[in-house]
Design a protein that fits this description.
With about 50 residues, the chain is an alpha+beta fold. It is about 25% helix and about 10% strand. It has a domain at about 20-50.
Length: about 50
């Protein structure tokens, strides 16, 4: 896989039956923070790093 320049947007979709559990796990393991889900955008929860 080619190395992308720093700052290149990247995303992945994932589905969890326990969203709060997944947020807790990935927050602890990867240091992610999370935005609020919005019905306007399909109830997606966005994860952020840095």
């Amino acid at each position: 896989m080619a190395v992308q320049p720093e700052g290149t947007p990247c995303w992945a979709d994932a589905m969890f039956s326990d969203v709060e559990g997944a947020k807790s796990f990935y927050g602890d393991v990867l240091g992610w923070t999370f935005g609020d889900a919005s019905s306007e955008y399909g109830n997606y929860t966005q994860a952020y790093v840095d």
